[in-house]
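anyone else get weird line breaks when pasting these?? whatever heres mine. first is seq + tokens for prot A
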Amino acid sequence: MTFGISDPMFELFISETNELLTELELILISNEDKRQFSKDDIDNIFRIMHTIKGSSAMMSIKSISETAHLLESLFSLLRESNCIDYDCSEISDIVLEAIDYFRAEIISIQQCNEQKLNQSLIEKINNSFEKLKSTPRESSDKTGIKKDNADDENCLTYRAIIYFVDDCGMENIRAFTLLNNIKDLFNIKLYKPSDILENNNTAAEIKKNGFELIFTTNKNEKEIYDIINSNLFIKNINIQIMQEKSQKYYSYNSFKQNFISVSVHKLDKLLDLVGELVTTEAMVIQNEDVQRLDNRNFQKAINQLKKITNELQDTVMSIRMVSLSYIFQQMQRIVRDMSRKLNKKVTLEIIGEETEVDKNVIENISDPLIHLIRNAVDHGIETPDQRIQKGKNETGKITLEAKTIGNNVYIFVKDDGRGLDKEKILKKAISLGLIKDQKQELTEKEIYSFIFKPGFTTKDEVSEFSGRGVGMDIVLKDLEKINGSITIESEKDKGTTFILKIPLTLAILNCMAVNVGNTTFTIPTSFVVECFRLTKDNLIIDPDGNEFVYIRGNVYPLVRINKLFSITNAVEEIDQGIVIMVQNDDKNIAIFVDRLIGEQQIVVKPLPKYLHNVNRLMGLSILGDGTVSLILDISKLI
């Protein structure tokens, strides 16, 4: 049986396999400094390989299932005895290579390419397997898998009823796959229905009554649940212990899976509908006819509607929130691989990985974090000899930390390495023509900002990881896409800290609505510093015609929105409009508008195709009065 790449089952297979691979990667990296794997880690790795083998076989992906089967056999040998002598790091290297192969193979299959076995990897697994086989070990059964002993006095007989996810289809095939996956782990006594392959009508029976198993094992209820639940499409598991003498059942425990997998597209659609609801609610409440109504019961109903709408909006947003742990843990692998290739000793400390952001935001920060971590290992951390000469610990440290402040998440990438070389950066900036006036005094932050220019690098040699001037400019561009920013702090021989500021969500923003002529704009309040009226004495015009405003002893560039977007019928005199001070990355500009409408929460909608090339706009929204508002991209304005 085969499944198309657009089949929901294939999407679920990809999602769950990637989760298992991430879990496997963390287990391996946590054992970097150990001589051998612990028994629990061996069992977990075996379980993961067993699951990937079964699920990929069900999806007819032989390249993955066959490779996973070999690795499963490898770890079954390790499960047999504690007396086998082996190199933990050598096996970890093989499994990590397999993880990379599995991920690449999944991507290749998604692109409709043919499956391709990695013969070099298979040879490495087989060689390691033969090496383990030749090592003295305790005896085992012929299957190479350590089963439960049916005669063990600690064994109990269990009854499990398994229910599969709704509408997964082919429940009898799911039951057969489950049975095949666990037959080597439990002593199966009977299962019901017993003719799951011969009789297709059993699918409906299983859907209604569940798939019943009776088996003996010396494992506890939690272990049983974990093994069964590691299979695909499991919705609910009810486990009972059977009293063997009286053959009576008594309920011991019931495990329920309290989550379901939902398509991202469905979540996006749900958010769009909630956004429309919020907008429509505002249009109703702000309607002049409605506001003139003086009816206490009607006002109570309006308030209740607002409360429910707000709760619904908050709930939908919470569903879209994703922990940073998945991305943060990926950095462990990058640090591990790079430090080995560069002959450096580096540890990664992760703080605040439970911090959550919107899924659309998290998709755009993976690449920036990868570049920053690679930069820290390659540029920042010194070699062990260099660190010892400086009186440092030979092992460098990188800290990846996240914290939520207001409506933003701050991510810190900190290393205790050599720090940024200001003189070298200045020299390179001058050679590239980035500094027009060499007598100009630049602040530290201005000097450090040059590293984000395309093609900028201070590395003299091109290596596998750096030296081409590509990477840091991508970091800035990716952050600007999500309305984020980055700043740098550095001290020579103390280290460097990159501070990323990103919004919690891109879907809903708190904004300041303003009028310019007959056009309405909104400005994200996270950029707004203050608003005020100025007199003509505060306006400064230089010989080139550029305008500035003088405020409390400081001078700031003035941007007239009406001139920027060629809007007619707008206020021209500085003392008749409103000046809004906005800030991004410690840089301030003053924006001149006609008047303020007020602060509103808006649902961000993408720009239509004919406006995609319009710079300085990040989207649009519909305000409560039905007005279409353009959202200013402050980072690009500055």
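and prot B, same format (seq, then tokens)
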Amino acid sequence: MDELVLIDGNSIINRAFYGIMGSKMLMTEDGTYTNAVYGFLNILFKNIEDIKPKYLAVAFDLKAPTHRHKMYEAYKAGRKGMPDELASQMPLLKDVLRAMNISIIEKEGYEADDILGTLAKWGSSQNLDVTILTGDRDAFQLAEENIMIRIPRTKMGKTETDEFKTAQILETYGLLPIQMIEVKGLMGDSSDNIPGVPGIGEKTALSLIKEYETIDNLYKNLENGTDNLKGKLRENLTSNKELAILSRTLGTIDINAPIEKSLELLEIKEWDKSKVLEIFEKLKFNKFIERFNLRQEETSKSIEISEIACEYISEEIKINKLKEEISSNKIMYYYMNSSDSSNEELIIKKKIDSICIYSPKENVVFVIDKIQSILDMFENAEILKCGYKQKIDYILLKQAGIKPNNFMFDIEIAAYILNASITKYSLEYLAQEYLDFSVEEYSAKFGIDINRNSQINLFETPINTENKNSLGIVYSYVIYNLYNKFISKLGDINGLDLFNKIEMPLSEVLSEMQYEGMSVDKEELVDYGNELKVKLDELTKEIYSLSGEEFNINSPKQLGEILFNKLNLTTAKKNKSGYSTDVEVLEKLKSEHPVIEKILEYRQLN
């Protein structure tokens, strides 16, 4: 059977936005946020790869009120608006999808859920295997034998997907998919402001529907007196029948939305590759450009590495001639090779194997194995040193007995100022991004394998004297070209003062700090840790004593049960995961019970 994939656009882009934010909030040089679009596309491509569908569509909500708002004015009232950083990315995502010729389906008066439900049931009737990709478990009511609900989730930093058909819904909830609507009617939904029946949460709602099957049957038993319900629960149900039925209606996905349905409309088509490339270049999605080979039509390169000459020199006359050129130009473009593997955070004594220096005058990369003959140039304060990850070079030189001077152009730091939102600044990436040159392609062309590890450690690539096209040679020439490109770009954004007066001087300070290190008294730290452990043990016993039982103090759910159900403290509003027990809530409860002070102290020490 052919596959149809239906994507809840709002749900998935929302998940992508919050999955890649904070320090990872991607943006372009002009400040355009891109993290949500990038995350959405990652999820999209992963699911296309997994399922290999013939048909695909993405459904979105529109701002206009829906039939549910007309039915219940307070529907979704109080929901926080979409953050500006996310809202600004919605048009970008739709532009990308249109360039990919992926169907975007929206309908005024109807939500994305209604579009998904309508297309899913129609697709099933057309003998298609349907997959609904969403983060909203409301879609469970749509599951059947050939309609699967896929819910992306993050586990241990990786995105995984849970899959639900009828059997999985039965196994998880003990109910048929259609009965999940009945559960929603009783418990409501705070995120959509669907009221439900007061006092009934998910656990009670599930129990009632397992016993009575539907809300109608539940009320039939209540009215006939054939139920076994008592007390407050029976009272709440009896006095809120209309609310339960309204909530069920609000929570029911419309599977008959008036939208166009045709296989031709949904069929996956060829991308408009030039348009996709244009958008991806604007959004700096170089990973996707490379993955889908979108630049395959292009033949021109900004630099032609194959024309560089390389010369290994050890004769004093040649080395002196190179030193004269460097002194005359007052700048040195170099790449330093060391043989040992390294940890950037803790560089133990290492040996500099060789140094590659590019000569613009001769268009030659000189490789110097007798490093003592060139090290004095690194001490010359009149010569600007242009390199990559210079903090490491600085320390290596210090370990070699050299006092580095004028280490004032680090390609990595310049790249950071130009775009602080990317997560890596490898020379491979920077060469592709700013010079339109692939180090990988060049290396493969000359038989150099740089893909031994997914993360290339530049210090694990020593110069091979039998291979005059080794990486150090390429890197030194790339550094020269990036220097000229970055000088111009830093000027364009008025970033030269920041780079020259703050970032590079700070780099030298940090290099000195790292080289010197700092002394710690290990025994003192261990003793202090033991003191804290003893105090935490004491606090744990006091908390258990004041609470009347043992529980996991670090579990917000268990703590909430103790504070609000057992000790009956003033409750904050309950959310889907339970009672809130954050610091702000606990601070307000300090006067109500002595255990609160102990819990706050426990958290501070822990």
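btw re prot B: The first strand starts at residue 3 and ends at 8. Residues 297-302, 449-469 have pLDDT under 50 and may be disordered.
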